[in-house]
Write a structure and sequence with these properties.
Number of helices: 9
Helix content: 55-70%
Order of helices and strands: HHHHHHHHH
Structural class: mainly alpha
Distance between the termini: 178 Å
Largest sheet: none
Shape: rod-shaped
Radius of gyration: 49 Å
């Protein structure tokens, strides 16, 4: 047996099978944009990949990781991928939407290879517009919050219920509840100063109580002395008569 028998033949060499892809390419009409050459070495694929994923999701309505990887692999197989062959290979996945996908993808790749850093100018403009929309929306949210706060401050404080009585929410809060801080203080110097002031206040109060207590004792002694003297005065005439 010859060695050729064991090596066999591939589909291109076998006369029974033709190149099916080339037959489909020859039988299909393509957009003129696919006839232009793309140099993938000048394209930043990290920027193109998110666009491919979003476009597939937009056309199919679902995320298809298999199709996404298939498209990326076909683009990375060669520095000059064949757009017509890609359209034929993707027809089984995207069907009628294949032409739209390939036209958008190829136009983006042609734009990317001419852009700075392999980034399409349209994606940069889209990102700038997205950031501007977010900034405008944030401004609108801030304006709505500011308007709501102003409306609350302008509402009359003397609100009444349907019965004509004042609402319980109009009752002013106790002074302690208003002045009491709602957030724990982290300043330990202020806490030490408050503790020292409280300790001094207690010492002053105790000193004042001792003075009041001493004054009370002094008054009691003075009253006792006065009573003793008055008793002596009242008994002195009796003593003189008894002596006589």
């Amino acid at each position: 047996m010859s060695g050729a028998f064991f090596r066999g033949t591939n589909l291109a060499q076998d006369q029974r099978f033709g190149d099916a892809t080339q037959k489909l390419i020859s039988q299909t009409s393509f957009s003129s944009v696919l006839k232009k050459r793309v140099d993938m070495s000048k394209v930043n694929m990290e920027v193109i990949k998110p666009w491919i994923s979003r476009k597939i999701n937009e056309l199919l309505g679902i995320e298809d990781e298999v199709l996404f990887e298939y498209v990326v692999n076909m683009l990375q197989e060669s520095n000059t991928p064949d757009g017509k062959a890609m359209q034929v290979n993707l027809t089984g996945f995207l069907e009628a939407k294949t032409v739209e996908f390939m036209q958008s993808l190829w136009a983006l790749l042609l734009e990317a290879q001419k852009g700075l850093g392999g980034v399409p100018e349209s994606l940069i403009r889209g990102k700038v517009e997205e950031i501007e929309k977010q900034r405008v929306e944030q401004g609108r949210i801030r304006d709505r919050i500011r308007t709501a706060d102003e409306r609350v401050r302008e509402e009359p404080r003397d609100r009444r219920t349907r019965s004509g009585k004042k609402s319980r929410w109009d009752t002013p809060a106790p002074a302690a509840a208003v002045t009491e801080p709602t957030i724990e203080r982290r300043d330990f110097g202020d806490r030490d100063r408050r503790d020292r002031d409280r300790r001094h206040s207690r010492e002053r109060r105790h000193s004042r109580e001792r003075r009041d207590r001493d004054r009370g004792h002094s008054r009691e002694r003075r009253h006792s002395r006065d009573r003793h003297r008055s008793r002596e005065r009242s008994t002195s005439p009796v003593r003189e008569r008894s002596r006589r």
